[in-house]
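Hi support team,

I submitted a single chain yesterday and got back a structure, but I'm not sure I'm reading the token output correctly. Could someone confirm the output below corresponds to the sequence I sent? I've pasted both exactly as they appear in my results page.

Thanks,
R.
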Amino acid sequence: NPLDQSGTFPLPESQLDRFMMKISLGYPDKEAERALLSGGNPRELVHHMPPEISLERFIAIQSAVDHIHCSEPLLNYVQHLIQATRNPGLFVYGISPRAGLAVIQASKAWALMHGRSHTEPGDVQAVFGAIADHRLSPSEQHSHPTSELVNDIIDQIPIP
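Hi R., thanks for writing in. Yes, this is the structure output for that exact sequence:
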């Protein structure tokens, strides 16, 4: 959907919280868009697409993410970030414990993608915005975009 739309109907906060991340894919490049436009019914193409990985490999990756270490100082860091979103001067509502779990899980996945067996503050910083932005609404005192306020929080919370 365009940036100024939330879909056919805006979702309530309780439902937005069930989506782990909001990721913008942007527009396709000219060649990809042309292929899309001339490719026929995309629903039919799905039936002919081979899987990228097997179910077994997918489950193994999930298990590997679960085994990535997250230290106590990093858990504290995540908790400080979450608590900073609960400032009524910044946002109408802060992010939930469910969002905190999503930050930890996504940080572990980010660490795994970068070949590490442990999470680092940069992993949290890399995923925090995608997890927090769609869950937050700026308070009436703020005209700044949510992403700007989230980036300010990341900049203000000391890194362990």
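A quick pointer for reading it: Residues 55-156 form a domain with the Helicase, Ruva Protein; domain 3 fold (CATH 1.10.8.80). Let us know if anything else looks off.

Best,
Support desk
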